[in-house]
């Protein structure tokens, strides 16, 4: 589903590569934690998957497409296969919960009837039944992140990318969010989550890829946050 | 494609950036009006040149009783006039001639300077002061020396005038007006382009969150740019409408009411030329806003 072949990414004006010869293979339906300190290359990794950047060298395949060669006008199509969740939720404050979720479908041209069916379904799945008419400000942080997840998942993407989704949440709320991501993963969606939250990683026992200075230090099935030795 | 979002965004965008849009509309309005005026002046000069060029006439003024010209001893006699017209008929350069009577000449003068001065006891001129004229039509506007010299010395001829000497300054002024309007318009067009660029930058900034989300969920570039393009189109249309109105006002007040009334000897432009100017303005207006929007949305909304 996601495949990095000796990928190097150097930003203009930076001596060190943000990613250095990274080779990673993520299969369909996998749940992968991406861990590492700030500046280790996690964000660059996710942005390459989203084709916000092209690699400096090496190849990146996402959902069967080689993104180096993907024409700019085809990028939107690629992104419809990828849902994205951020630490800061990125909800539109002037739209209700339902409108925020529907927005993702509207702007890719889904029909009214599809939207009317998918939005309540997805809100129910993330546990926000009955809150569709609220504004984001009226919700707790955990609920807002559920709205963001609903928005990312409403189009049933093949891949869900989560960049520190629990970074702004307390531990109890984080657990709820992780359960939700786990449920989404079990529908067959590949989930890649960048995180600093050791507790969550240790508890989930999923595959862990650790980056440091742009290199893969560890790639461990059912791993933990810190190195085990 | 679902366009509900696009149209609600359009309304919001227009309201949110109202002052900026007004600035664009006004600049566009003035610059398009000037472009339109430039076109009208150009067509006017062309039409006048065509008219006087194709039917360039030489005016042969005949002697009056009180003529200043020492060659004129008295009012031209019928015999003298017949002799002159015979010479013109024989001349290979002349295509024909028309007699302008004293009364016709007097009417023309009254039209040009207003009838009041020529009525009552204190009249500046009377019908009797006016010369008869022979308007000689040329076969080739460039070939007139022969006629001028053949007629020039004849008895009863006071002055031979080549009309182009009078018309050229008029055409010259119209041409100058044309260049002044087009040059001013060029500066304003640059101002309009910069304003459009600024407006887009502000709008893109105001909507950066929405745009970021749209890009992430895979909205097409066109879809993201559409509200901007429609905004550009709406401002352009308003600018074009205002300019069309201003040009219509110019046609009515400037040409129909003043020009055609006061300066009848000039062939004035009409509805047809107005149509040409409006057409150009209608094409130019949207181009001026939509093209920079296309370029800049690509820059600011990069996928």
Our count of helices of chain B gives 9
> Mind summarizing the main beta sheet of chain B?
4 strands, antiparallel
Determine the N-to-C terminus distance of chain B.
19 Å
* Secondary-structure element order of chain A, N to C: EEEHEEHEHHHEHEHEE
The level of helicity of chain A is: 25-40%
What is the element string of chain B, with H for helices and E for strands?
A: HHEHEHEHEHHHH
Percentage of residues in strands of chain A: 15-25%
Spans of at least 5 consecutive residues with low confidence of chain A:
none
Assign the structural class of chain B, choosing from mainly alpha, mainly beta, alpha/beta, alpha+beta, or little secondary structure. Answer: alpha+beta
Total strands of chain A: the figure is 10
Q: Into how many domains do the coordinates of chain B divide?
A: 2
* Most strands sheet of chain A: 6 strands, mixed
Radius of gyration of chain B: 30 Å
**Poorly predicted parts of chain B:** none
Beta strand % of chain B: 5-15%
Radius of gyration of chain A: 18 Å
Q: What is the strand tally of chain B?
A: 4
Average pLDDT level of chain B: 83
Q: Determine the number of helices of chain A (DSSP H or I, runs of at least 4 residues).
A: 7
